[in-house]
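Shall we go through a protein fold together, starting from nothing but its sequence? Label the sequence line and the structure token line clearly, so we can match residues to local backbone shapes. Would you write everything just below, so we can both look at the same thing?
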Amino acid sequence: MERADVLVIGSSAAGLVAALAGKRVYSDKKIVVVRKEQKTLVPCGIPYIFGSIEGSDQDILPSDKMFQDAGIELKIQEAIEINRSEKFCLFKDGEVIKYDKLIIATGSTPKIPEWLNGKGLKNVFTVPKDKNYLDDMSQKLKKCKRIAVIGGGFIGVELSDELNKAGHEVTLIEILPHILGLAFDYDIAERVESVLKERGIKLKTGSGVKELLGDKQVDGVLLDNEETVNADAVILAMGYHPNSQLAQNAGLAISQDGYIKVDEYLRTEDPDIFAIGDCAEKRDFFTRKPSRTMLAATACAEARIAGMNLFKLSAVKTFIGTISIFSTAIGEWGFGVAGLTETTAKSEGFEYVTGTFEGMDKHPGTLPNAKKQTVKLVVGRESGIILGGELTGGLSIGELTNTLGFIIQNRMDLNSILTAQIGTHPLLTASPAAYPLLKAAGNAAMKIMFRN
């Protein structure tokens, strides 16, 4: 029977980073990572294998080499049982590995609604993190002209744009009034919709799906309003379920939504077992309510914290809640959000003001490829602390969104931003005299000062 100081189940973003962080902090410990897939995909890159890059082979996470370089052992096996009392894991081939510490990073699987008639028809697909499935799906989609994507979240939006880029006729269906309606305020979501429409994607919003049509193979989608969308293939991008069955079978506590319950150190109720990534429970940074956010960046933050706290806890190395930092790109335009949107702040009862500014992301704005850059901040009226914000502009929006995330996590207030020193360059940033983030903060400060 093999023994590991640390056993990690799963090696996508969460498992990879946890193992590396653990080895960095506890270099003398034997760390073994076990996964069932031969190769691991870069999760966020999956939509792009259908358009921008040449298949899934160009989207491989280089985890194997990283493990080898770090002195971490990798096994390709499927875990089927965790025995907590004797501290071992049983695998499908009969192998048993004992552990001192266990990290569960089993990820998530696509949701397929039980009520959806026609879900078993040919050419109905989901978007799992499974290379073989996606390779087969990609080949079949190449023979399809009309594709309906159900679900207007980030995966659905990005996948629709990539399929459209590859020459398919794409219809994106979303039950909410706007796509990305759970991530952005409607004014920002409408901008994304405008860009998608300009690129030739048909949108059907505000109406759910009644059933999928067809005999043996899907040929359409019937909406709640009785409208039919003709399609040679349908992709269900309706969210993901946490993969928590292994943990549940081991008797670990599971939340009402199916996530493995963890504390701020990412420990389960068993102090020798940690859970991270999509399978682990999360709470919102501000409201402390359960959050269904599933992001690779969040998973990596959890993984670093778990890896550092395996054998000794640090009161300053804890997970303080999910800030929900999202960004996406449609063509030459970027869209980002971090923290609370205005819609969420209002529904949760926060007293807030907004600060907005629209400028250019280069200076002067006549430079080639300069884009309008808009920043909208949500600010606590009494404290001046930044609660959240949304950004639109060129592709530089991604890094600016991350900057906003740092601001939120460190609970910076308007004064901190207005007195901040920044570096600028004509080709890289907005003007220091009209930097949208600072100008939006100034706009919010004026509203607080004059109680607008």
Q: What stands out?
A: The chain has a mean pLDDT of 96. Residues 124-238 form a domain with the FAD/NAD(P)-binding domain fold (CATH 3.50.50.60). The two ends are 69 Å apart (CA to CA).
